[in-house]
Specification:
Blueprint: E1 2-9, E2 12-19, E3 30-38, H1 41-47, E4 64-72, E5 82-86, E6 101-104, E7 109-111, H2 118-140, E8 150-152, H3 158-169, E9 174-178, H4 181-191, E10 195-198, H5 200-203, E11 215-220, H6 224-232, E12 234-242, H7 256-260, E13 264-267, H8 275-288, H9 291-296, E14 298-302, H10 306-314, E15 321-325
Parallel strand pairs: 8-9, 8-11, 9-10, 11-12, 12-13, 14-15
Antiparallel strand pairs: 1-2, 3-4, 3-6, 3-15, 4-5, 5-7
Length: 328
């Protein structure tokens, strides 16, 4: 089988598309024929060796994939079942989706809703599934379209693009924040953004602990100063769903929004989410995500180009979702 293999020997890193013996796949109970994988921000970090994402070497990266079951020792899935995988430390500790085969635990797999093709499930991927988890968190904490606007940071990226599209379809007023407002403004409006703001408005440190309320809720992929400023401008009883660290892992903030406005900071762990919540998220994606918009935000590449695209995604130069045809 063909796959992208990362290795590090004596601190010498390599990323190579190569032939891999199926027998080299790690032990697990289910073998999947991978049709499509994707490139997420975490994949970009791993493939460029920009951050210590990979814990075991060598490693096939790819934190998600979609395909069909070839064999399984589990009663949960049969041969030919269409499945998607998101998270569970694949591409970090366990070989992931950027190869033509993957052997994983059946408990890590989610059935693809019949409304989606395998390609569409991959296009949604971990980014889209994470966006849906964020929307569910806002709903769980009482943020409705009547509550006010919802901010999405990193709006032109994978999580952000899907979040904007879902929120708009649900009737929310959406404020989209991006560092590429001028070049991606039309794209973000086509997904449903009502207002655009440049990320520089939110990315500086030293902001006020409590700012003028500007939104009822937010989905944040940045962390660091951006998340602190987002919290400070969130209205009473609002909720901020935090799912990323594109700006940084640090968070210098104040309890003021939490205790003076009752704001909730909801952390989203898409990697180890329960099977029940995953299936809930995918069921909601089937009803709340416009597949025409999904097509608009998705582009496709072959396996050979993945290292180059990984560099672009780390630089913040990729729009929307990137699907990888692992056989191309």
């Amino acid at each position: 089988m063909r796959g992208l293999l990362l290795n590090k020997v004596d601190d010498e890193f390599s990323a190579e598309v190569t032939d891999i013996a199926e027998d080299d796949l790690p032990e697990a109970d289910t073998l999947v024929a991978v049709e499509y994988s994707t490139i997420n921000y975490k994949d970009g970090l791993a493939i460029t060796d920009s951050s210590p994402i990979v814990r075991n070497w060598p490693m096939v990266p790819g934190v998600d994939f979609a395909g069909t079951v070839l064999s399984s020792e589990s009663e949960s899935f049969g041969v030919g079942d269409r499945v998607v995988l998101n998270g569970w430390d694949v591409g970090e500790k366990h070989w992931g989706g950027l190869a033509e085969r993957a052997r994983v635990n059946a408990d890590w797999l989610t059935p693809i809703p019949e409304e989606f093709s395998t390609y569409q499930a991959a296009a949604i991927g971990t980014a889209g599934y994470t966006a849906m988890l964020c929307v569910l968190a806002l709903e769980d904490h009482g943020v409705t379209p009547e509550s006010g606007a919802v901010l999405v940071t990193g709006a032109a990226g994978g999580v952000g693009s899907v979040a904007v599209a879902i929120l708009n379809r649900l009737g929310y007023e959406v404020i989209a924040s991006s560092g590429r407002v001028e070049e991606e403004g039309d794209y973000l409006r086509s997904l449903g953004a009502n207002e655009l703001i440049h990320r520089d408005e939110l990315s500086e440190g030293g902001g006020r602990p409590l700012a003028k309320a500007r939104w009822a809720g937010a989905i944040d992929v940045a962390g660091s100063h951006t998340l602190a400023n987002v919290l400070a401008a969130t209205g009473p009883k609002g909720c901020v769903a935090a799912c990323g660290l594109a700006q940084g892992m640090d968070l210098e903030t104040s309890v003021a929004p939490l205790i003076l406005r009752g704001v909730t900071l909801a952390g989203i762990d898409s990697v180890h989410e329960t099977a029940e919540r995953r299936e809930q998220a995918w069921a909601r994606l089937a009803t709340d995500l416009d597949v025409n918009l999904l097509e608009e935000m998705t582009s496709e590449v072959g396996l050979e180009t993945v290292p180059d695209v990984a560099s672009l995604i780390v630089q913040g130069r990729v729009r929307g979702r990137i699907v990888v045809d692992v056989s191309a």
